[in-house]
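Sequence of Transmembrane protein (Tieghemostelium lacteum).
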Amino acid sequence: MKTFKHSKDLTILILLIIALVVLVLSYHAYWYRIEDKDLGCTIYLKYSGQKVVTKGEHIITNWDNEQEDIKSIFIVCLICGVIGWTCIIILLLSQFANLFISSKSNRFLMNICSRVISFITIAFLLISILYFLNLPDTYADWSGKKFNFIQITDSIHTYPYVGWIFVCLSLITVMGSTILLFVSNSKQKKPKTIFNTFETVQQPLLSTDPLF
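Predicted 3D structure, token representation.
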């Protein structure tokens, strides 16, 4: 059985698995939370619709035609997330292959491809995160109630929820794996000095064999 010799590649592999799992979970969770104390309700939003909770009861509804602009924001974020998810799968396969590749030239080419795909992944996850910042203004155009992306007042509490935070965590882990891709595997060689040379020359004279 072939043993894993490249701890760096194994670490990258673990980080990418975490990024993949967290990204998948993000689209099963709600992305935004609005607590309106004036109306006495809490609203949770995600790409498939919204959930309105009032006094222990909750109503789940899909986005209707009047909420197409809100839905479009989630769709863009979802598409970017799916592209990022696909790139992470490719990175996982390349890093898994790296654990068993012994040829330096093949590993070099694989690392170059992994670096390029990593930057593409970061770009799409970043777009997904930043584009979602448009949600408050778009939601306000429909509801008539304006609020900030993060707002804590006596009448309303608004902030990003689990799904959006998970995408941020996925981005951080991908960035961590990308940094490791640029870390050299080679050990630093000990610099050769005159003292090293002297020790090498004197080594035969330090024999422990008896002279008499």
